[in-house]
Amino acid sequence: MNIYKLGEITDKEAALNKLGVESGGISIMAKKMELMYFYIKDLKAPAANILKQDALSIGAELAVPGGVILCDKPTYDCILIGTKKHIEILSRKELAQPFGLKALAGELKKFLSSNSFPTRIMGIINANDDSFFEGSRFVAGDAVTQCEKMIADGASIIDIGAVSSRPGAKEVSGEEELERIKPICDAIHDQKLYEKALFSIDSYTPSVVEYSLRSGFGLINDITGAADEKIIELALQYNAKLCIMHMQGTPVSMQKDPHYEDVTAEVSTFFEDRIAKCEAMGLSREQIILDVGIGFGKSLEHNLALLKNMNHFTHFGCEVLIGASRKSMISKIIPTPTEERLPGTLILHLKAVENGASIVRCHDVAEHKQALAVQEALRS
């Protein structure tokens, strides 16, 4: 007899099926193989004690600070640990409990019913001369050629913007932005490139967004995350998707001492508010994409926390986008010029996909296509 310890099994049902497990037992066993962790903030002391006992009774665990049993404080932060099966049981069991546990059960159910989306690559093209990575700058005919190359390399989405959003970037008038983007939009429309890929307009200026949508674009990438009513109306009018990004401050000021009590919780609350506004106006969650805004009003610590907790944002039922391509957070880990940050970019993006992101916004499409293919092979 030989025995060896298995590494992480990503596709648990496929592994059990390959082993020859009876079909009826595969889904049951797969749930027992998936360990889940939930950080619960400000749980009422009585609720913490109830949840602790309920978790232990089914073989799960609730990590709590000392003093919880005595209710020394009114609320406590806790970590709930259990298999997917355990969480399913608790999400039903706590519906009958007081002290806010019914609401907790509802939140747990959302995480259990998260949608799964295929991984897609979004290529970046900047129709301006001051974006932080020189290799992404293209104009008119050159931009169209680059679009075609990115599509051939494996991009199913092309994101085009005419205004730099790098830290400290100067504001550009709507008229100038439209003048920069028009030739590219016209070429995409005339050559019907929108039939080959989904085109995204990286803008929050209504006139620019509308011109792009009329030219065949199908996604609005709004870095302000404001969910402006005019932008939502345009998304509805043209049946387009809307990407909502979180940013603290503006590009001019966003990196001047960004501060959060809990970055994951605060970004999550931001998305919850914006999604509610979009839905109230008629936009469905299938049309909404969420971007945590790596580098937009965040320190290195904030960026890393969001990447590690990327899976949290999947519970909204929207696609989640990651955009850390060649960003300065890499240089803060190990000093590296922008042109040499591809290795760090690939690591960040692969980890984000592993943690739930489904759209990868990047400058280097072919390299990401290869890396994602290898990652997928390791999963199977």
From TrEMBL:
One Pfam family cited in the UniProt record for this chain: Pterin_bind
GO terms assigned for molecular function: dihydropteroate synthase activity
Pathway: Cofactor biosynthesis; tetrahydrofolate biosynthesis; 7,8-dihydrofolate from 2-amino-4-hydroxy-6-hydroxymethyl-7,8-dihydropteridine diphosphate and 4-aminobenzoate: step 1/2
Keywords: Folate biosynthesis, Magnesium, Metal-binding, Transferase
InterPro entries xref list: DHP_synth-like (IPR045031), DHP_synth_dom (IPR006390), Dihydropteroate_synth-like_sf (IPR011005), Pterin-binding_dom (IPR000489)
The organism of origin for this protein: Sulfurovum zhangzhouensis
Residues of the Pterin-binding domain: 119-373
Matches recorded under Gene3D superfamilies: Dihydropteroate synthase-like (3.20.20.20)
Annotated catalysed reactions: (7,8-dihydropterin-6-yl)methyl diphosphate + 4-aminobenzoate = 7,8-dihydropteroate + diphosphate
EC numbers, comma separated: 2.5.1.15
Presence of keyword Ribonucleoprotein: no
Matching PROSITE patterns: DHPS_2, PTERIN_BINDING
CDD domains per record: DHPS
Name assigned to this protein: dihydropteroate synthase
Cofactors that this protein relies on: Mg(2+)
Enzyme class: transferase
